[in-house]
Amino acid sequence: MLYHNEELIETVRRSQIVEEMDLMGPISDLFQIQHTPFGGRACFSNTSLPRGTVVLDAEDSLGESISYEFRKEVCHYCLLYDNGKVMKCRINASELEPLGEQFKGKRFQGAGLWFCSPQCRDEFLRQDHILELISGYESLLNGLLFCQKRGSDEDIDEEKLNSIPIDQQTIEFQWQQLADEWIPRVQGMKPSKKLAQLPHMTDDIYCCARSICRTLFQLKYLDPESVTNRSFQVLQSNELSKTSRFPILLSFQIAVYQTLYILLPPTLHSQLSIPKFRHILGAEYGNAFGIWQMGESVGDREYLGYWLFPRASFFNHSCDPNVDKVRKGRKMCFILNRDVTSGTQLCIAYNCDLTLPVSGRQQTMKDNWFFECMCDRCSSELQTVH
Ligand SMILES: C[S@@+](CC[C@H](N)C(=O)[O-])C[C@H]1O[C@@H](n2cnc3c(N)ncnc32)[C@H](O)[C@@H]1O
């Protein structure tokens, strides 16, 4: 029942923001968001712009996920990756003491954070309210260690789980069941009994829970009127397309939610709700940018994780993009690779091999991004093919 109310409030709030989105200031002075006949909303230049123009400099990521495999090899502040070298700098409990008493006398595991230098560690620690995020991370890490020690007798048949057809009704039913049965059963339990309800935490569940923990933390302190927050609230959710393609994801999402529900400390637990959680994950599917190793060619670089930039999520894909995306540390820059006239749609390339013939590109977009590419290049090449 509670969940229905929460969902209704979220839906009304978001639809108000969608209306307000048109009235609010632009994401950039150089382009505006407009609706397209196909492909939803997209970015269009306000004026003629020369090649090399930075149309958007995005530093306001909301949530980032470093793959488990690279958790010690990527700096958790500047995202440096040094060819597989383990980052040497970690946080000690003594460094946290000036920030608060919370970890005094407790065994602190380092919250799963690694940094390339004391400077990056200090920058990370300088963020407002950072102890809340560190407590969340530390609790998730302790949960992972607990699960590794406890082991699992579950034998997950991925193939079987992925063959169960999923539609919107199934998704709603599963979440409703969690809200009606699991949450009321667990919420009144003592902490030790609650811990026994923790689903087996795989590496992927751990990484996803960390990323959501970070997003909840950032959303808690983000100005609700900021363009970043408003953009985030109206991001397209790809929950249904992704979950129906990979049905196993539904049980995965529920396990991540249960993990967060049990492990998040009160300051972040208060930020967790099913509609918010579903919007965060639904927005990540199809909007997140890959965090790639820098300085290597496309075929040779490591995929280190992903992050979300709400303001940069309105760029559509084109197989002949006029905007290049370049990561500079914690920042994503979007730079014109040619001159454009006023009113031109500004497009980036999503992760796709643009040297493939049109059939291959169409298949890649369908398989990885769940849409039929209608970019100018595909449209004209498809006309020639048929
Ligand atoms: C990152 S979002 C881009 C913004 C999106 N158009 C919106 O309204 O939120 C990606 C989604 O935009 C649409 N899209 C992007 N590029 C497209 C293209 N070349 N052809 C058709 N649809 C496209 C698809 O629905 C895709 O899932």
How would you describe what is shown here?
InterPro entries: H3K4_H4K5_MeTrfase (IPR050869), SET_dom (IPR001214), SET_dom_sf (IPR046341). Residues 29-351 form the SET domain. This protein is α+β, with helices and mostly antiparallel strands and 386 residues long. It has 2 domains: 2-58 and 309-355, SET domain (Beta-clip-like, Beta Complex); 64-289, no CATH class. It has 15 helices and 10 strands. The chain has helices at residues 2-23, 93-96, 118-125, 130-150, 158-162, 168-187, 191-195, 203-221, 227-233, 239-245, 248-263, 266-269, 274-287, 358-369, 376-385; strands spanning 31-35, 41-45, 54-58, 64-66, 289-292, 303-307, 316-317, 323-328, 331-336, 345-348. The strands form 3 sheets. A 4-stranded mixed sheet has the order 1-2-10-7, with no helix packed on it. It has a 3-stranded antiparallel sheet with strand order 3-9-8, with no helix packed on it. It has a 3-stranded antiparallel sheet with strand order 4-6-5. Strand 8 (323-328) and strand 9 form a beta hairpin. Helix 4 runs antiparallel to helix 8, helix 8 packs across helix 11 and helix 14 (358-369) packs across helix 15. The longest helix is centred in the N-terminal third of the chain and has 22 residues, at 2-23. The protein is globular, with a radius of gyration of 22 Å. The protein starts with a helix and ends with a helix. 33% of the residues are buried. The model has no long low-confidence stretch (mean pLDDT 91). S-adenosylmethionine is lined by residues 38-42, 236, 286-287, 313-314, 316-318, 369, 371, 373-375. The site of S-adenosylmethionine has 18 residues, from strand 2, helix 13 and strand 7.
